[in-house]
Design brief:
With 257 residues, the protein is α/β, with parallel strands linked by helices. Helices cover 41% and strands 18% of the residues. It has an eight-stranded parallel sheet with strand order 1-2-3-4-5-6-7-8, sandwiched between helices. The structure holds nickel (II) ion (NI). The site of nickel (II) ion has 5 residues, from loops.
């Protein structure tokens, strides 16, 4: 039986409150046996942990997203540290840099929050789930400057070119592809998905966002990670079953789950 692992979703968000059990049932039908639910601020991190504690096949990450970087006070950092002591927490995230919106906290505030949470991940020997948008050059520089505290992890919903992916691979990270890799007009992303070594490749939905073809435009859900696996297998000219097995093994190794 095929087993898939959705390495980044937000299944504990209120978007799923009305029909979460149906979403979980469809996930099982699609062969998605595991997922990682990712926090983006203190409250969503607490919810993600509670959901992981209650649900088979679900682990979680806790962290403050770059869009909320200005909320990472010492108290919040301390609260994240306490949450991360629970065994269901298998990563710190999502953290990183996002310079897409002018309304986001400044690059300096984002960098500070990112580094503080990378230090937390390093201290706890946990991998990191990175969210990086319109900030690849800043992030590559930051990572190179902090090589001594890198604890591995994922470039989630990767949005760069193969050249950029290579920089992250050199730093030891996994590259995770979401819905956009299935879109028709995504030649650069698809080139990256063809070239990332199989042992560093991951898949995810980022649900409820980023729905892949053929369900693009709808609310996304973890079961749809199957479409992403099918597309990447097609791009690489390899059997779907093999891609499923390898990406699941990668995710299980990374999250120890
Ligand atoms: Ni996310």
């Amino acid at each position: 039986m095929v087993e898939l692992f959705d390495t980044h979703c937000h299944l504990s968000d209120t978007d799923f409150d009305q029909d979460r059990s149906a979403v979980l049932a469809r996930m099982a039908e699609m062969g998605v046996t595991r997922c990682a639910v990712i926090g983006y601020d203190l409250s969503s991190s607490e919810t993600a942990l509670r959901f992981a504690q209650e649900t088979d096949g679900v682990c979680c990450a806790v962290g403050v997203h770059p869009e909320h970087a200005d909320t990472l006070t010492p108290d919040v950092l301390d609260a994240l540290r306490k949450l991360a002591a629970f065994p269901e927490v298998r990563a710190i995230g999502e953290i990183g840099m996002d310079l897409h919106w002018d309304t986001n906290p400044s690059a300096e505030v984002q960098k500070k929050a990112c580094i503080e949470q990378m230090e937390l991940a390093y201290a706890l020997s946990l991998p990191v789930s990175f969210h990086i948008r319109d900030a690849h050059m800043d992030m590559i520089t930051l990572l190179k400057e902090h090589k001594s505290i890198l604890s591995g992890g994922i470039m989630h919903c990767f949005s760069g070119s193969w050249e950029i992916a290579r920089e992250y691979l050199k730093l030891g990270f996994y590259i995770s592809f979401a819905g956009p890799v299935t879109f028709k007009k995504a030649p650069k992303l698809q080139e990256a998905a063809r070239n990332v070594p199989l042992e560093r490749l991951l898949i995810e939905t980022d649900s409820p966002y980023m729905a892949p073809e053929p369900v693009r435009g709808r609310r996304n859900e973890p079961g749809n990670v199957r479409y992403i696996a099918e597309k990447i297998a097609e791009l690489r000219g390899m059997p779907f079953e093999e891609l499923a097995e390898r990406t699941t093994q990668n995710a299980r190794n990374l999250f120890a789950f």
